[in-house]
Design a protein that fits this description.
CATH superfamily of the largest domain: Alpha/Beta hydrolase fold, catalytic domain
Radius of gyration: 18 Å
Distance between the termini: 48 Å
Strand order of the largest sheet: 1-2-4-3-5-6-7-8
Shape: globular
Helix content: 25-40%
Structural class: alpha/beta
CATH class of the largest domain: Alpha Beta
CATH topology of the largest domain: Rossmann fold
Order of helices and strands: HHHEEEHEHHEHEEHHEH
Largest sheet: 8 strands, mixed
């Protein structure tokens, strides 16, 4: 029954608790207990928000338009000195190099939803690399609960270095054309902003989804064009936007921000009831338009 719940069926208080749970303020048991205590039906709503990754696959790993594999590469200064990622390339009759996009996961590692996003990009003509930040801790463990716990145990600076090294690896890859875009979700959205600043003109474009803004002193380093996606109801993330917007304008960074009506944090993730089909499609179309314009020309 919980699988049939729609976003509008779930009480806003449950969404608020789930956001706290996702970002480390409580564990699964406490989340479920607090949801159950709110009102009759709260437990069912809370359980409905856990991901069901069978719903997330939109591009099969056997799709004839793409070729997927796992790759390893050096990551000096990172959590272990080595990284592993899911790489997906387009299958083209003539092209030997492709514009590249780094796909950065949420705060729980390389789950099936993020792998599907990489396949979507490859099907659209991009060389996609989705690193697993949890690889130094044993890799994505097969469920988000343990994945979040593992990511929380990593040193943030080293984890960011692993993402930075992943971007450099992708940009220099023999299959890459030399043009680089970045997209990411939640933690990965914030990391998209951070890497855009860290890499400067090595990144042509970025599409962060509901990500935390970088510190204001870093904004001057951003040279990439940004298309930023936000949920309408996401106070923790949206509180950063006003100052970030002002800094982007002051520094002359080409950017546009979109707030999607009726959505919650995580609206692009089609494995939970937070998913909003209309907003996900519209935002993804804008992301592809950005990458097509900035990376393929």
């Amino acid at each position: 029954m919980t699988q049939d719940l729609l976003p509008q069926d779930i009480d806003p208080r449950i969404y608020s608790l789930y956001d706290e749970y996702c970002h480390g303020a409580m564990d699964r048991r406490e989340f479920l207990a607090k949801a159950s205590a709110l009102f009759v039906g709260g437990l069912a709503m809370a359980q409905a928000l856990f991901p069901r990754y069978a719903n997330a696959q939109t591009i099969s790993f056997t799709d004839p338009r793409i070729k997927a594999s796992y790759v390893k590469y050096a990551s000096p200064g990172g959590s272990s000195g080595e990284m592993r990622a899911y790489m997906v390339q387009p299958i083209a009759a003539t092209a030997t190099q492709f514009p590249a996009v780094l796909v950065i996961h949420e705060n729980r590692g390389l789950n099936p939803y993020i792998e599907d996003v990489a396949r979507r990009l490859a099907a659209a003509g991009f060389l996609a690399l989705a690193p697993d930040g949890l690889y130094p801790a044993g890799g994505y463990p097969g469920n988000d609960e343990d994945g979040k716990r593992l990511q929380d145990g990593l040193a943030p600076a080293k984890l960011q270095t692993d993402m930075l090294n992943s971007a450099v690896f992708l940009k220099k890859h023999a299959l890459a054309s030399g043009k680089l875009g970045i997209t990411g979700f939640c933690w990965g959205g914030g990391m998209t902003n951070e890497l855009a600043a860290e890499l400067g003109d090595a990144v042509q474009s970025g599409a962060p989804y509901y990500g935390i803004a970088p510190s204001s002193e870093k904004v001057s380093k951003i040279k990439a064009e940004l298309v930023l996606h936000f949920a309408e109801t996401d106070p923790r993330i949206n509180a950063y936007w006003s100052n970030y917007e002002s800094a982007l304008k002051t520094q002359g960074v080409a950017s546009s921000a979109h707030f999607y009506a009726g959505t919650q944090h995580g609206f692009h993730n089609n494995s939970t009831p937070r998913f909003n089909q209309a907003a996900a499609d519209l935002s993804w179309g804008r992301t592809l338009d950005l990458f097509n314009r900035t990376l393929k020309s």
